[in-house]
Amino acid sequence: MIRWNIFIILLVSVVLLLLSSPVFAQLAAPTGGNIKLGPVEVHPSVGLMETYSDNIYESYDNKPKESDYITTFSPGIQFLLPMRRHSFQIGYRADINSYADNDETDYTNSLFGGQMKLDFPGGLVFTLSDYYSIATSPRKWKEQAGVNGSSDAYREKDYDANVLNAKIRYNFVDRWAVAVWYNNYEIEYDEDYDDSGSYNRNLGGGSIFYRFTAKTEALIEYNYSDVDYDIADIDDNINHLAYVGISFDPTAKLNGYLKLGWAEKKYKKSVSDRGDNFDIFSTLVDLGYDISSYNQLRLKVYRAIEEDTDVNAPLTRSDINLSFRHILAWNEKLGLSANAGYGKKEFEKSATDTDGMRKTRDDEKWYGGVGIDYTIQKWLTFKLNYTHTDNDSNFKRYDYSESKVFLSAVVHF
Asked: What is the pTM for the complete model shown?
């Protein structure tokens, strides 16, 4: 039986197809950049996605699988003011998630903010952005009668977060460039009993670049960050990250970047079952290879130190993903995609599992998916995707497999 939400997506699709045909050309909506308020470009958007998941709670706490349909409605708007080489923009987007059978799990994420880019003729580029979100970490299992607030181990967690980024890059002597940047990330949970996850991170860094071909440059990069938890001060830490690498222009056949280096985390207080500091070999890779104008391969490799959002525990997360995208030569509006990946999480501190056993968590994850997208007009895209994830953990709490099917329609002017 086709659910009503899927029927609505298909009905909207038929209407929009009619509006984009020559017969209804006089009713066609303007494409990107054609909606203006004086010099300001207005870019509204709306998305509608229907998702089926056979395990919406990811078997948390070794619970049985629970399947459901999730409808996600995503309205948004962006205002852009281009000024020759400079630009200013502000925008808003929301993702409103509604579950068909488990409506206590419904949640909404909102993001709004803006960015300024100043590109001066002498080679100086300055960017500043600030984005604020009102969001929710969704429930991990169904509501239980008479259990609420801090007593509900599976509760949703509402929070506010703000991300501020500032960067200056200066190109000089043809081949050389330097860049410095600052990032501040702050997350605050709404409820006092969730406040152990609230923290502020200040990060500063810099790079030196040397361009040895028209579209290729070498780099040396360093970052330093200080993480300060609001009440869980035993988790306060500082981090050092240093990389050497190479980057390729986005318009080159081989594009993206490759960074190899070292990362270290040092805790300010000692805790049993956790080292005061540890370091790893770190890798950041995002490389695309344009086989032809119709085929692209992309490789992403990631290895870095993170902190688990569930219990603030430090871990090394490794992930490698290979994706392929093909545009059909006989219809360039149709695209096919596939990806496969492997990830690993190695924790540095022991914890207690749902069965009462205390151990150090170790996860291995295999995942992949396929999809098709159809861009009928520049302002109208449809997507159908399937993904599967198998997370093999020595903790029963985090061991799960999940399959998802997505059907979405996005209108963006």
From this structure: 0.88
